[in-house]
From TrEMBL, chain A:
Organism: Physeter macrocephalus
Function: The GINS complex plays an essential role in the initiation of DNA replication. Required for correct functioning of the GINS complex, a complex that plays an essential role in the initiation of DNA replication, and progression of DNA replication forks. GINS complex is a core component of CDC45-MCM-GINS (CMG) helicase, the molecular machine that unwinds template DNA during replication, and around which the replisome is built.
Protein name: DNA replication complex GINS protein PSF3
CC per GO annotation: CMG complex; GINS complex
Record key words, sorted: Chromosome, DNA replication, Nucleus
Automatic annotation (TrEMBL), chain B:
Name of the encoding gene: GINS1
Organism expressing this protein natively: Physeter macrocephalus
Name of this chain's protein: DNA replication complex GINS protein PSF1
SUPFAM superfamilies tied to this protein: GINS helical bundle-like (SSF158573)
Record-linked Gene3D superfamilies: 1.20.58.1030
Keyword entries, A-Z: Chromosome, DNA replication, Nucleus
Amino acid sequence: MSEAYFRVESGALGPEENFLSLDDILMSHEKLPVRTEIPMPRLGPFFLDRSGGTETDNAIPQGSKLELPLWLAKGLFDNKRRILSVELPKIYQEGWRTVFSADANVVDLHKMGPHFYGFGSQLLHFDSPENTDISQSLLQTFVGRFRRIMDSSQNAYNEDTSALVARLDEMERGLFQTGQKGLNDFQCWEKGQASQITASNLVQNYTKRKFTDMED
Amino acid sequence: MFCERAMELVRELHRAAEGRLPAFNEDGLRQVLEEMKALYEQNQSDVNEAKSGGRGDLIPTIKFRHCSLLRNQRCTVAYLYDRLLRIRALRWECGSVLPSALRFHMSAEEMEWFNHYKKSLATYMRSLGGDEGLDITQDMKPPKSLYIEVRCLKDYGEFEVDDGTSVLLKKNSQHFLPRWKCEQLIRQGILEHVLS
C-alpha cells in the first residue's frame, strides 16, 4: 500500500457524503425504489417499458415505479414530494430489521448491497416515518458485528482472510483492513524491523512492469 | 441512464490498488464532457420552451438533466483530484525523477502540476533548518544509527561517498555506508537495508 497516498475518506456515515470521495460516489450509484408523482416528459427512452409514447411527449407517466440511483433520487426529492416519493429498500424495512436484531452476525452484508451502512445513513434524508427505527437498526447491527470484526482482524496474521471478510460490507472491510495494518505494524516492530528502510511499493511495481514491456 | 461513462472513470481509479496511477483516460473524459454538452443544450432549449411556450411540465425533466450534469461534474472532478493525490504521493515515494513508465500515464497538465509541486516542496525545504535547508523526504523512519549495512540488489556502478572515496555497487556486494546517502537507493530497490 502506498504510504503517501491519502485518499478522500467517505462521509456517508455522517450528515453528508464527501463530494470528492470515490467511495461515496460508488455508494450513491446504488439504486432504490421510487414512485413518480408527476409525469416527466421526454425521458421515456430511458425507461422504455414505462414510456407513454409520442402523444405524451415520450413521458414517464405519473405513478410509475422505478429504480433510480441514490444520487438522482436525492436530487429530485423535496419534502413536498412534488416530483417523486421514495420507498425503503427491503433490507431497511421492518422485516429485515427484526432479523438483524435477532442475530446481526449471520447476515451477508456484502450481498445486501455492499454499502449497507453508508447507503442506509444517506436514506435518512428522505424523511421516512421509520427513520428513527432505521438509524437504531443500523447502529445496533454494527454494534452486534463489531466484536467479531475486531477479533478476527487482530488475530489473523499472515493468512488468507477472504473467508473472514466475505460477508462484511465495504465500511466493515475498511475497518478490518485498518485492524490488519495495526497488527502487521506491531509485528514488524516486535521483530525489530520498524527501523528498516524498505523499498517503496510503487517503485517496485513499476520496475517489475518495465521488464515485461521489454519482453513484448 | 446518464453518467455511465463518468462512473467508469471512477471505477477505474477505485480498482487501481491503493496509490497506483493508471493511464490518463483522455477518451473517457472527452465522452463525459460531450454528454455534459448535450445535456446542457437540451436543457437550454427546454427552459426556453418552458418560459415562452408555457411548458411548465418540462421542469421535472430539466431538473433530471441538471442532476445528471452535476453528477458528471462530481465524477470528473473527483477523478482528476484523486489522480493528483496519487501523483503527489509519487514525489514522496519515488523522489523527484519519475520512472519513465509512469510519465506516460500522466497528462501534460498533470506533469505540469507535478513540476509545480516539486518546486513548492523544494522551496519549502530550503526555508527550513537555517542556511542549508532540510530534506524532509529523508528519514521517513526514525534513524537508529549514522551508518547502515546495505546489500546491493542490482548492478549500479560507481557511487561516491562524502569523503571522496567511491564504492562499486555490484550485485550482491555488501557495504557499510552513511544512512543519508543510501536512503534514496534503498527506496528505489537498488540497495537492501540489512539489519544485523
